Amino acid sequence: MNAPFSPRRSLRLILVAPRGFCAGVDRAIQIVERAIEKYGAPVYVRHEIVHNKHVVEHLKAQGAVFVDELSEAPDDRPVVFSAHGVPKSVPAEARSRRMFYLDATCPLVSKVHLDAERHFREGREIVLIGHAGHPEVEGTMGQLPEGSITLIETAADAETFQPRDPARLAYVTQTTLSVDDTVGILEVLRRRFPAMTAPHKEDICYATTNRQEAVKRMAADCDLVLVVGSQNSSNSLRLVEVALKAGARDARLIDDASAVDWAWFDGVSTVGVTAGASAPETLVAALVDAIGQRFDTAVEEDLGAREAVTFKLPRALTA
């Protein structure tokens, strides 16, 4: 006898936008690709150009060689600095070795560097709100002499911080933080140090903010939120946290569709899908397809802020 027909379970899938690549990530990837086209392989890249393993593997296949430190790269090949930014000591070393280098630092990260330098010139002590060990934080702290910047990671840190002169204090932030968590830290700092100088424009980048707002819109309706992105991607990790705080019953960070544990879908009627700022849209499409193969899926597009930001490539690649 034939087995009885068992219809696939219905599933509502909310696909939010904006998601995936931001302008800074797109620029950084283009810099590596165009450098390989123009100068041939290999092109060396200090640290992961962006925090996504699929992007890194794709660029490796084209001829990019990723290294942890500049000392691992030869003098006679181009080298690219990652989108997260680097301490000033890195380009200084490259210049001393007469290396040809391309700086793929996101312009919004460079803006944080310039703000920190301005505060330093004007005699202020600087607080950096961010996560210890993240390349962006290391790059920002490395713009100034040691001791010029104090890292604050939590509201508890902000409560115990003792500046040299509360009247001469300024803050900058990592660009990929949770907007809500940063607000909590700033509330403590502003209460304790009302004279503290703020950036001319908030440091958390437009793409981080837009992606978090998109997740907040859908989270309360979702039994499960899937965020496409790598485990070392700060902005992707924040999207998981934001989803849970905004009311999602469950939220998971996955590299791609192969990382899905389909047991997560038990009892799920609505799933939300987004992607961190360094995750390719092809991975999102593959995830939606994989879900559609297992469920009778009704896909809803939730469109948020329209992003039209672009950043210029270095002149060496466009001349």
Largest sheet: 5 strands, parallel
CATH superfamily of the largest domain: 4-hydroxy-3-methylbut-2-enyl diphosphate reductase, catalytic domain
Number of DSSP strand runs: 12
- List the domain count as a whole number: 3
What's the gyration radius in Å? Answer: 22 Å
Spatial strand order of the main sheet: 10-9-11-1-12
Molecular shape? flat
Short description:
The chain is of the alpha/beta class and 319 residues long. It has helices at residues 23-39, 53-62, 89-96, 107-121, 135-141, 155-160, 179-192, 206-219, 234-245, 281-294, 315-318; strands at 10-17, 43-46, 64-67, 79-81, 101-103, 125-129, 149-152, 169-173, 224-228, 251-254, 270-275, 296-303.
